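Lab notebook, bench 4. Continuing the backlog of folding jobs that were queued last week. Each job is logged with the same field layout so the records can be merged later without manual cleanup. Today's entry covers CD166 antigen, a 560-residue chain. Filled in by technician R.K.

JOB TYPE: sequence-to-structure
TARGET: CD166 antigen
LENGTH: 560
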Amino acid sequence: PLALGLYTVNAVYGDTITMPCRLEVPDGLMFGKWKYEMPNGSPVFIAFRSSTKKNVQYDDVPDYKDRLSLSENYTLSIKNARISDEKRFVCMLVTEDDVSEEPTIVKVFKQPSQPEILHQADFLETEKLQMLGECVTRDSYPEGNVTWYKNGRVLQPVEEVVVINLQKIVDKSTGLFTMTSSLQYVPTKEDANAKFSCIVTYYGPSGQKTIQSKPVVFDVHYPTEKVTIQVLSQSSTVKEGDNITLKCSGNGNPPPQEFLFYIPGEAEGIRSSDTYIMTDVRRNATGEYKCSLTDKSMMDSTTITVHYLDLQLTPSGEVTKQIGEALPVSCTISSSRNATVFWIKDNTRMQTSPSFSSLQYQDAGNYICETTLQEVEGLKKRKTLKLIVEGKPQIKMTKKTNTNKMSKTIVCHVEGFPKPAVQWTVTGSGSIINKAKETKYVNGKFSSKIVIAPEENVTLTCIAENQLERTVTSLNVSAISIPEYDEPEDRNDDNSEKVNDQAKLIVGIVVGLLLAALVAGVVYWLYVKKSKTASKHVDKDLGNIEENKKLEENNHKSET
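JOB STATUS: finished
OUTPUT FIELD FOLLOWS
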């Protein structure tokens, strides 16, 4: 490289400067020397080498003490390059007749330190010109230049908006530059997450280069422009008994720490932090909720509906009624929305609501009226009715001779609740029969039966007793030699249905026969009446009174 037409050596600060003597060694060379020129042009010799004795001598120059080395080809090396080494050096080759000189220019370069943004502002306020920080880069040579960036784009100076001031200081002992660039800036709300950085541009041996600082993000303060109220809840709906947390927030930075909360039923706003908690809310908490800044500016509102569900079962709890009585049952619902109602009896869902115009034993059981609001999670109510149907013991006795004709089965059919205790006795002797067998007690009914083989006529007594009454019924039973048949022994539901069907068939046949007889009688009566009319006409025409009497007598007999 050449500088002003001269040969130039570019060196890095701290490295070794190597300067070849660019002269061709002449014949008869006596010695070679190196010198540098002072700013005023006067020379300072620093190194000497004899071509004959091969010895090297270094002049006593403090700046180059122990730093010089002169090789056999007269190449001069200077260790630990300094900024002060930027001079014009001259290689001299001397013969008896001539002195040849060739100058070399030395340029020294020092890369600056990575820039740092120092004295950073704690925070920035919008619409206010303030010092953002200082970009500092040290130990540069030659001096460099500092540029500020925001989000990767150059910040150009703008009057009273972007103010940049660059200072360059030289260390007199080293000759190195320290550059400090301060940035004054008017931030906006959009600068809240902006990345600010600075870049130093410097020159090195190979040309222009840059080094960038680490980016910095500043806390930008700006006033609140909007207030928002929220309902913090684990569910999307609120029901009675829940806790409600209201949260009010402002979009300023820093956000407001206190607000006024306006609650339905409260005349004045309640001063609180950004949250307001209501516990165990009731339905009267339904309404519009508001919050604002403490100066009552910038307000927001929301509506909260507290869902409720009431269930009234009449009657409820344990109810005891007598068989045959009426029992009106009502399940009344009051809710914030349409509720679903259903009934359960003894763990089985019912198709219709219970209604009792005449209570039967099978009506007894545990009834549950349950209602839910499907749109509100966890809102469910239920009430229970335990219905007890009581009845005095009712007895019906039947008898039949068994197929083997060796015994007779006597059955005591019993109804009642609580379940009656059954006892058998033989009238006359008063002895108690303990060999009775009982069927299962279902819907207040069961049967007790005995098998006997009486040798003579006897009277059996069935006694049924519960807390309400004692009922006694007797039945005469003939000796085993006399067959007897009464109603079927076991009258379960299926057999009862068959008997009822047969009874209905018989009644239908009898009614049909009676209707047929009635129709036949009416037809006969009409026929007789017509015959009487015809007889009267004949009597009139013939004028024979005696014959008419005979005809009437005959007709009367026929009618009879």
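OBSERVATION: The two ends are 166 Å apart (CA to CA).
SIGNED: R.K.
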